[in-house]
């Protein structure tokens, strides 16, 4: 996968190839996002065009006043890049979202970032917005295209009559309801980290400490039933989130049957244990 970090200065510095472009922020790359990305991939294959994705970084709420500033992510950028790679994206455009970019009008965005990147077809969801004050929508996009590219609008994908969204997943994390998240993500909520040290409080128990990207959106404080995956080995245990802004997690496990190496690990949040267990572990 080719990755291009775009801003006003770097816009015209690379070769473009005719593409199908999927558009959006895509935090979590949840089931709704995946449906959209599969549509774009299928169209790229049918039309023999490059499968491209455009996303933005950081989240627009960090430079425009919003009800809530989003500075923690379900998938921090390196994770999102990895998922796009796995989904077969051929070109990834990461547009720097700053105040200057936010003031680009919907027509300017189409001229510079869609027509300018040789997009023959654009795929986005029913509620995608773009341009200054988010004035552009999917109807506007068809008008702005002026016949130069075609547009597919992906319908709302729901779970129990609710839109599957990054916002809904953040709410589930905030309430500790991690067991419901696979309905939205198609997988357990997971974080990637590095085993930084371990200690042994008694003969039967090990505590592993894992350093994670500080921009992960963590579930609420407490203890979680979790699985820790390292290479092909998997350990079951309890994971402590001491507070949602921590970047060190503690994983409690009974006598691990494998040699612990200080490498990359992935932690899957399976379900919430309870506050009582958390208080007991803390003492
Ligand atoms: C060129 C451009 C300008 C934007 N300007 C604003 C803005 O002024 N205010 C705003 O709230 N969002 C703005 N946005 C953010 C969009 O409304 C939207 O959040 C973003 O395109 C990601 O779409 P998604 O949330 O549907 O994935 C802008 C987006 C683009 C592409
Ligand atoms: N459930 C869904 N069904 C269809 N399209 C979706 C769905 N969720 C998001 N999309 C589309 O995916 C792209 C990325 O959307 P975005 O990153 O805003 O996701 P979101 O889940 O709506 O996020 P948020 O909850 O923060 O608004 C957009 O084109 C959007 O319209």
From TrEMBL:
Q: Pathway, per Swiss-Prot/TrEMBL? A: Cofactor biosynthesis; FAD biosynthesis; FAD from FMN: step 1/1; Cofactor biosynthesis; FMN biosynthesis; FMN from riboflavin (ATP route): step 1/1
Q: Which reaction does it catalyse?
A: FMN + ATP + H(+) = FAD + diphosphate; riboflavin + ATP = FMN + ADP + H(+)
The answer to whether the entry has keyword ATP-binding is yes
Has UniProt tagged this entry with the keyword Lyase? no
| Annotated EC | 2.7.1.26, 2.7.7.2
Q: What is the protein's name according to its record?
A: Riboflavin biosynthesis protein
All copies of the FAD synthetase domain together span 17-168
One Pfam entry name: FAD_syn
Tell me which UniProt keywords the record has, alphabetically. ATP-binding, FAD, Flavoprotein, FMN, Kinase, Nucleotide-binding, Nucleotidyltransferase, Transferase
The source's domain of life comes to Bacteria
Query: SUPFAM superfamilies recorded for this chain?
Result: Nucleotidylyl transferase
Q: Which family does it belong to?
A: Belongs to the ribF family.
Q: Which residues cross the membrane?
A: none
